[in-house]
Amino acid sequence: MNAVNHSKTGWVFTGSNGDFCLKQPDRSSFLYFPLVNEGGMMSSISPKLHGQVTSGHNTFLTPPLSVEDLHNSRASRNFWVYVDGKGAWSAAGNSARQNAGMYGEEADDTELEAGLLWHRVTRESRELGIKAEITSFVPAGNDKVELMKVVLTNTSTEVLAVTPTAAVPLYARSADDLRDHRHVTSLLNRIYTSAHGIEVQPALSFDERGHRVNYTSYGVFGAAEGGDQPTGFFPVQEEFIGEGGSLDWPEAVVLNREPQIGAGGGVHREGYEALGGLRFAGVSLQPGQSMSYVLVLAIGSERIDIAALMDKYGSVRAFDAMLQENKTFWADKVNTVEFHTSDPVADQWMKWVTLQPVLRRLYGNSFLPYHDYGRGGRGWRDLWQDCLALLIMEPGDVRSLLLNNYAGVRIDGSNATIIGQQPGEFIADRNNIPRVWMDHGAWPFLTTMLYLDQSGDLDFLLEQQSYFRDSFMARCRERDVSWDASADSMLQAANGEPYTGTILEHILLQNLVPFFNVGEHNNILLEGADWNDGLDMAAQRGESVTFTSFYASNLLDLSRLLRMLKERKGIETLELAEEMALLLDSLHEAVDYESVSDKRGRLDRYYAAAPNRVSGVRAELALDSIADDLARKAEWIFDHLRRNEWIQSAQGDGWFNGYYNNDGERVEGESGHNVRMTLTGQVFPLLGHAAAPEQIPQIIAAVERNLYDEKIGYRLNSNFGGIQQNLGRAFGFAFGHKENGAMFSHMTVMYGNALYKRGYVKEGRKVLDSLYSLSVNFELSRMYPGIPEYISEQGRGMYTYLTGSASWLLLTMVTEVFGVKGKLGDLLLQPKLMKDQFDQNGKASVRTIFAERQLDVVYTAASGAEYGGCQIHSVTLNGAVVTLQRVSEGVLIPRSVLTALPEEGVHLLQVELA
């Protein structure tokens, strides 16, 4: 990354492990921070402690919210202080008085500190002479708990008499009830008070699952420093706020009312909106004196064992110990990959990017304020792209994940789109929506190929796995009337037994079916959409040229992989479902690839032969013949695209058309000053093999001319004008927002990756640097460290944290920029560093995992040396000279050299460039 003007970052890194601070964070809108654990507790928190606490779509402890609620809602985690003689003050900043005076001279001084994954806001009122430090985190482990510690300090010169009150709204139900049944579902509430707090267990769940007996409980519990229990409770919101009151100016606090329920609790209430309202004993704070309080927000699968919960979490000592454990847990997870370049800020920023794929695995695409769509879980595409980062960070878990994921493939080459909570769990359609995203079949092979290169595990291709089956057939064009929704969702053979095929069979099927599934211009049909979900209104005649090129590259790489399988494993033949022979047409009855009708006819024959079931008979086919067939298909597509989909501009550059709309019209092109161009349409021809070498400079020039904007980076598309109802909903968005012309990080990073792959390092570096500089420019982006889903027209970072672009950026930095990559299990070093990325000692390094060993790969460059002007001169491993095995791409180190090393510890690989 190029160094940027860090005076614009707003936030500043305060250590070496990603910790950062930000002055007056509440002066920036839309900020939120994730707090999560592996056990399913998913929280978000803003500088004023807005956000939500949940374990799933149907189990929200606090009210569900979207990003606009962060500044509009009065409901938040709140901690009130009544100061005798001075009135009420919110330690969280959420009072009507503080909000009204936010921009005045008497506004609170605030500072945010945060790290991996903990959050602290310090707020001080000079007027009242009091300071509050509130630290929040979700402890590592499997408990659905969020912890909060409040430290009150007297910063005045006089004694302060204060009365503290915690107030956390307890929503305690499904997000579905937020509007449609808000009051009715409050009637289900059963509210219990006990010595440490308030617990709610609604009698029924009242959502899309039906009216069921509810067992989930929700609670807010607390203790003061020294273990003192609350002295009273406010379990009902309306009683706490009073008539005419509100959560940001509640009567119980403003008038310092005594709670009706005293110490020990024991009172049961029913049928009201609940509140975790805990009154603590009044205390006189001497000047400089502090007092601490711990709050425990918990979700239980049944009534909560409060004594055990508070024994584990409910003390200052326990909080501090758990916080340290949490910091260590996340640091260990993130620091499996570390970068060292000339820019230490960029290196620490990458720690947050490295964390993001883990966050997406835990949150899915939901449960953060910008991600207010979705009901939890991940999509098919997410399963495979998140594995890209896991192969770098947590490679030990990936093999089983990949194997399980292939169980979601249908025999028609499509796949399940409803993903269960457990690895390999796929669920038949619940909403009766028949839809296929045409790009889904392309991603699994890309991820699997990375796994094979990293591991050398060619045996994985021969593992057996089942297929997914539901009521949809022929890529959702037909329904299987014999489908029984109560039956097992596995494809069956004619004998009624589940059918399994090799992983290689699954991969071949996913890439062969689309080859024949073409539109009138002989490109693969767009169907429901491709990677760009916004292109969802061209299901009949739309074509995705861009993913036609991706599938073609897969076919060629598959052909090469098969030949390597023969070379390495001595395999001469493959056993495939006999029906698949129809798709390998050149082996017996060749199809005219120029004929759309011939291709469609062959696909219809295949659908008829495998109508949601197979015979179970396997055909034994020559491996070389299959490889030849795949290569023939790939080369035909490359020639077809270069002949028919290349747009030569009058400006001397050119690009690939990416799409046809539902009227069968070419989408991209140039007419006078009107230019229609997509970045996606260029990325995949560059990323694979479709773009010929002589076309690459023209594509780069066209992208710079038509899509690059200094203010927001590389736009996803030029301004098409109009809403494009024959293409997709994306064009209903205002231009410059989301999928219509914003800087969409995912495609920008993939563009940078493609340029690096093709050897255009300077150009690729510019792409990655643009994204980095936009993200860290807090003056515009208004986001914490990390990469957003997209940059809006105004330069604001949108949909922070949950984006597949983080996986791609991490992958690009490790395998392309630092050139630490696999080649069927061996380590290939192919650095593409530029001279200004080396520190003042001429060094740049990356720590990563390869061959189950942690490696520090340290590059040392001669003065002025950079990519293109130098090569690897020598390599030492833990001080011992490594005999260089040069290949066309770089230097190869056999896997056996690395596996001979001890598994523990970090091994030093020093690489001299000259």
Describe this protein's structure.
There is one protein chain. With 914 residues, this protein is an alpha+beta fold. Among the domains are: 18-334, Distorted Sandwich (Beta-galactosidase, Chain A, domain 5); 819-913, Maltose phosphorylase, domain 3, CATH 2.60.420. Helix content is 27%, strand content 25%. The strands form 14 sheets. It has an eleven-stranded antiparallel β-sheet with strand order 1-2-8-9-10-11-23-17-14-13-20, covered by helices on one side. Strands 6, 7, 12, 18, 19, 21 and 22 form a seven-stranded antiparallel β-sheet that branches. The chain has a six-stranded mixed β-sheet with strand order 24-44-45-50-46-47. The relative contact order is 0.08.
Q: Ranges with pLDDT <50 over ≥5 residues?
A: none
CATH topology description of the domain at 18-334: Beta-galactosidase, Chain A, domain 5
CATH class of the domain at 18-334: Mainly Beta
Structural class: alpha+beta
The CATH architecture of the domain at 18-334 can be given as: Distorted Sandwich
Q: Helical content, roughly?
A: 25-40%
Rg calculated over all Cα atoms: 30 Å
Tell me about the biggest sheet?
11 strands, antiparallel
Number of E-type strands: 50
Kindly report the spatial arrangement of strands forming the biggest sheet: 1-2-8-9-10-11-23-17-14-13-20
GO molecular function: carbohydrate binding; glycosyltransferase activity
Domain Glycosyl hydrolase 94 catalytic: 329-581, 630-819
Domain Glycosyl hydrolase 94 supersandwich: 119-314
Protein name: Cellobiose phosphorylase
